[in-house]
Amino acid sequence: MGTKIISGSSIEPVAFVKNLINKGHSRSINAKKNILASLLLRGCNILTTMMLVPLTIHYVKPTQYGIWLTLSSVIGWVGLFDIGLGNGLRNKFAEALAKGEHEMARIYVSTTYAIMIIIISLALLIFFCINPFLNWAKILNTPPDMAHELSLLAIIILGFFSMQFVLQLVSTLLQAAQQPAKASLFGLFGSVFSLIVVFILTKTTSGNLIYLGLSLGFSPVLMYAASSIWFYTHKFKSYAPSIKYVNFKYARNLMGLGMKFFILQMATIVVYETTNLIISQLFGPAQVTPYNIAYKYFGIIAMVFGITMSPFWSAFTEAWVKKDIDWIRNTMRKLNMFWCGLLIVTLFMLAFSNIFFRLWVGKEVTVPVSISIVLAAYFLVNARNMMYMYFLNGVGKVKLQLYFSLLGMALNIPLSIYLGKKFGMPGIIMSTLILGSITMVWTIIQYDKIINNKATGIWNQ
């Protein structure tokens, strides 16, 4: 009898978890499975990244690491050249799948690949023409004798970024098909490969930014190439890009919504991705490193919430197409509860942040408490916004978001510089925090209007 009780008690928790996962709408079940798998995979990815940061800092020293981060973020702006096609494809592909229009889905995929290749080829041509005239040492506020090295590094970063720019579209399809966990698996492989390569560099060479650029640029490209080959010969074989299915007539469908996403992406880069450059200009590249250490630590908040949200953009699209409003309401209620739990976790992270930093990177890098406080608040606000943005993006109601993003893009840089000069590095982050807080108000209002069928005018566009 006693044995049965022990046996039952060991099985009950497993049965409870299985029941929890398999309970509810099929859309919710799929989302829960992907979230759990993604949490496991991205958790391993976080650990790998945590190991990579101190290894990289010790390889090239904090100042050079700050230069690498700043240059990478500047080159990353080339991502704007997709003119929102990635997100446009995500919505159109999800809609086509929901309607069972498989040939149309393949046309959208093939046409997007064709346009992206054309765009990135033109961007590379323009860059190679103007790069000899760019003074990267002045742009990044570094010693003049680094100009040639930085110019070569910029070419390496852009070259690998361009390949990744096209290859990563397979990740967009996985997200549109509500299977983001599979995309996370290849991200983990890329991080592990990067860690191995940088470890080999530390044992075989002295600190070298060029070697670092080659190793960290090659790793994600290799993984995206491998994942593309795998999925387009297996699960996504029916949607594999083909010249035969390229039809620029449908580019307008992709770019109509895509252009709105393009402007949103451009605004996001200006609001969120110029921080490294502003810090480098105001306080020197060495100060980019402590900011990014804190950013990566509190970025775990965004990563966990992003993993949770990843299946829902396309799930919201499907639910909206099928008029399943009750599912949307219930999902948003549960996501709000999850965000409240994340708030408590963030407070604990903040309380123990200095201890963690010392254990993680040692005494070589010091992170001011003020930066930790502002970044913790920033990521919490960002997570809250993500919840409502994913709904609005999924149902294609982005016009109001577009206007506020343009306003934020105009205000962020001057506000960051002003607050940075007044309050130091925390002031730069305060700028994005202020703009994010304003966004949090109107996104909740718009969601409420749309879901209750009260949205009119710009609130419904």
Characterization of the model:
It is a single chain. The chain is mainly α and 461 residues long. The chain has one domain. Helices cover 81% and strands 0% of the residues. It has helices at residues 2-21, 26-75, 85-99, 102-130, 136-139, 147-167, 169-176, 180-204, 209-233, 251-272, 275-283, 288-309, 312-321, 325-351, 353-361, 369-394, 399-423, 425-451. The chain is globular, with a radius of gyration of 23 Å.
- Portion in beta strands: under 5%
Count the E strands. Answer: 0
- Number of H- or I-type helical stretches: 18
What kind of sheet is the major sheet?
Answer: none
What is the 3D form? globular
Could you estimate the helical fraction of the residues in percent?
over 70%
Radius of gyration over C-alpha positions, nearest whole angstrom: 23 Å
Low-confidence stretches: 1-11
Distance between the termini: 65 Å
Q: Count up the domains.
A: 1
Element-level helix/strand string: HHHHHHHHHHHHHHHHHH
Integer average pLDDT: 82
Based on secondary structure, the structural category is mainly alpha
Question: How would you summarize what this structure contains?
Answer:
The chain is mostly helical and 461 residues long. It is built from 18 helices and no strands. The chain has helices at residues 2-21, 26-75, 85-99, 102-130, 136-139, 147-167, 169-176, 180-204, 209-233, 251-272, 275-283, 288-309, 312-321, 325-351, 353-361, 369-394, 399-423, 425-451.
